[in-house]
Design a protein that fits this description.
mainly alpha, 11 helices
Length: 204
């Protein structure tokens, strides 16, 4: 149902990590699950968009090697929950001027307040980078997936394409935030109706 890396990272966050994120933001388990499920495709899709250009792929490849390689997701989460992790700085690079639109869209899609949505994105950004570095350069069996910026761009491009093709909340949010020109006309009205399922109004 989710793109491969998105699903893998979400699986790794199940249980206590997701509970800790929800507690930090004052969310129920259902809200936390829904919000993280919506936010991860947005962040990975944004990385794929950035890495679609050679200079973007080179910058991301260098940042992953320099700042995120070898980090354990559990340790990064502990740092994030303690107020570290430099999520804001990472979002500056990942989303740039789209940060406010991203928080607004995530809030519209999940029923979170914009402050909660912004905090969640800042919490998840370091986790996504640590996960991506592990997948690209180590990958539990060794060898990794990316030996060059071009390969990194190809892997992330495929992830972004899969997210878009699968649609759903993640694909819709990614499209609403990233596939616009940043002219202030982004319309999230089609996402608002989806919020009910995360607020207990949908399936139980």
């Amino acid at each position: 149902m989710s793109a491969p890396m998105t699903r893998d990272l979400l699986d790794q966050l199940q249980g206590q990590p997701l509970a800790d994120i929800g507690n930090q933001l004052g969310l129920s388990p259902t809200q936390a699950q829904g919000a993280v499920s919506a936010a991860l495709p947005l962040l990975l899709g944004a990385l794929g968009r950035n890495a679609s250009q050679p200079q973007g792929a080179e910058a991301l490849f260098g940042a992953l090697q320099r700042d995120h390689a070898g980090l354990d997701i559990g340790s990064v989460l502990g740092s994030v929950l303690g107020g570290g992790g430099q999520g804001g700085s990472i979002l500056d690079h990942v989303l740039g001027g789209r940060q406010q639109n991203a928080a607004q869209g995530l809030g519209a899609a999940t029923g979170l307040g914009q402050g909660q949505a912004s905090s969640l994105l800042q919490m998840l950004a370091p986790l996504v980078m640590a996960y991506l570095a592990k997948r690209m350069f180590a990958g539990n069996g060794g060898g990794g997936l990316a030996g060059s910026p071009q390969q990194l761009g190809d892997v992330l491009g495929q992830e972004r394409q899969t997210i878009a093709q699968q649609g759903g909340i993640g694909g819709s949010l990614m499209g609403a935030v990233l596939d616009r020109d940043g002219d202030g006309d982004t319309d999230f009205s089609d996402l608002i109706g989806l919020a009910g399922s995360f607020l207990g109004g949908g399936r139980r």
